[in-house]
């Protein structure tokens, strides 16, 4: 299955869970993906603003969280683990109507931890840089179980 198609399926499962992600990032568009890397876009809307009219730091932190998770999905992972560390540097602002370009990559995925980097830009302007570490040991097990179930469902009898 192509990487972008796989990542879209993972993202749809996030949205179908109905939690925070669907409330804040329902407009996130997955643009392209290759092994360990994904490019997404998000139009800044009124709900994404802080009281001063700029893009809220909580939104940008959420984007780093989801961007890191989708970069792990781009490693052909169905489950993407749980966050152990997330940091973000806010470089410049974004305002309503700006289109955020979110370039995420999985820098390393091991048996226990995955390390990701996320760059958020609007046009040529760098808005934020983030790093996201996730615990993936149990995700590896879940992925193996899902792969086995998929294989059994598609194998001829």
UniProtKB/TrEMBL annotation:
Alphabetical keyword list: Hydrolase
Database matches in CDD domains: PaaI_thioesterase (cd03443)
Thioesterase domain sequence ranges: 53-126
Entry annotated with the keyword Hydrolase: yes
Record-linked Pfam families: 4HBT (PF03061)
Single Gene Ontology MF annotation: fatty acyl-CoA hydrolase activity
Record-stated family: Belongs to the thioesterase PaaI family.
Name recorded for this polypeptide: Thioesterase domain-containing protein
Species annotation: Mortierella alpina (Oleaginous fungus)
